[in-house]
Amino acid sequence: LSEVVSAAKNEFHDLLESLPSEIGSTSDLLYLYNGFWYAPEDLEGILAAQQHFQAQDTDIILVTTPKSGTTWLKSLVFSITNRKQYTVSDQIHPLLTTNPHGIVPFIEQIYYDNTNPDVSHIPSPRLFATHVSYTMLPESIKTTKCRIIYLCRNPKDIFVSMRHFGAKIISPTNPACQLIPVEEAFNKFCRGVTWFGPFWEQALEYCELSLENPDKVLFLKYEDLKGDIISQLKKIAVHLGCPFSLKEETEGVIDGIARMCSFEHLSNLEVNKVTGVRSLWMVDNKDFFRKGEVGDWKNHLTDSMVEQIDQVVEQKLHCSGLTF
Ligand code: A3P
User: Fold this and answer.
1) Which of 13, 58, 104, 308 has its CA 20 to 30 A from that of 113?
2) Is 285 near ligand 1, meaning CB less than 6 Å away?
3) pTM score > 0.90 for this model?
């Protein structure tokens, strides 16, 4: 087995050598593969998943660009699909003691940790998350009846959020892991050179799919979730084939889920406040919660940055009607 693993590692190493690469915002090398930029471990994980992940009709796949509200989406969808088992007033609700990333795994991450993990024992509906484009999803996700939910966010807020997150993952002792100057990082972001970028290609892909096949792909925006979480929760539940009943609505089940998963509630839970428990990407659970607001970019981006990114959005997305 170890020979097979090391052959696969060598093959991946050769692949990386053949790809264009560029420094990313935390001075890590990103690689361009099929039109998108990846950190090597993410690319390795998703290529392994393409070979081994077998989707089931009942699976639910959450897709996001990093920093667009993945943590929130994971908590919302978990709470909706498990609401019979765990009511939100339940003291044993898993979100009270586990960070959403510990509940809903990233496909690229579990297949990086182990190229062929056993995910068959996970009770259905199985929830998985990923940051990859549709074209890179394992084939069985496309061919089975499993549902996809895509969440996007204003790229200006994504950039600001990413910048703050990047500051958490840099290593003071590792010169290869430092934040590059903000202007440089911003230019790269606008060229799509960012984790899983370009964000517009990914958003466009899932936006078009949601129009062509609304039963398969539900397209959501972070700003809409912030604007009216109740109607968005209903929409998600319908998409997943488990709409809220009138009884549930009058009994406050939807409000309860919204409250349970709110930024204020989740970020104040002990499990999401502790430091030193570096669960994912060498960051603390608390690093997934910063401000949780719409429009914080106004406090961080210069006028010329705003102009630059507005131009990118206009040029790349205007024909899709996607606005932020
Ligand atoms: P900010 O940095 O703008 O505050 P991701 O989960 O994809 O990594 O995205 C992280 C962003 O979502 C951060 O944005 C974080 O604060 C915000 N976030 C995390 N949990 C949230 C929640 N329950 N409700 C709203 N926003 C949330």
Assistant:
1) 58
2) no
3) yes
Q: What is the pLDDT along the chain (324 residues), one digit of tens a residue?
A: 678 778 888 899 999 999 999 999 888 899 999 999 999 999 999 999 999 999 999 999 999 999 999 999 999 999 999 999 999 888 899 999 999 999 999 999 999 988 889 998 899 999 999 999 999 999 999 999 999 999 999 999 999 999 999 988 877 677 777 889 999 999 999 999 999 999 999 999 999 999 999 999 999 999 999 999 999 999 999 999 999 999 999 999 999 999 999 999 999 999 999 876 555 557 889 999 999 999 999 999 999 999 999 999 999 988 788 888
Give nearest CA residue, ligand 1 atom 14.
292
207 CA → ligand 1 middle, Å: 21
Report whether 50 contacts 139 (CB < 8 A): yes
Q: Of 155, 164, 226, 157, which Cα lies nearest the Cα of 196?
A: 155
Tell me what ipTM this predicted complex has.
1.00
Annotation marks residue 265 as catalytic: no
Contact status, residue 80 vs residue 242, Cβ threshold 8 Å: yes
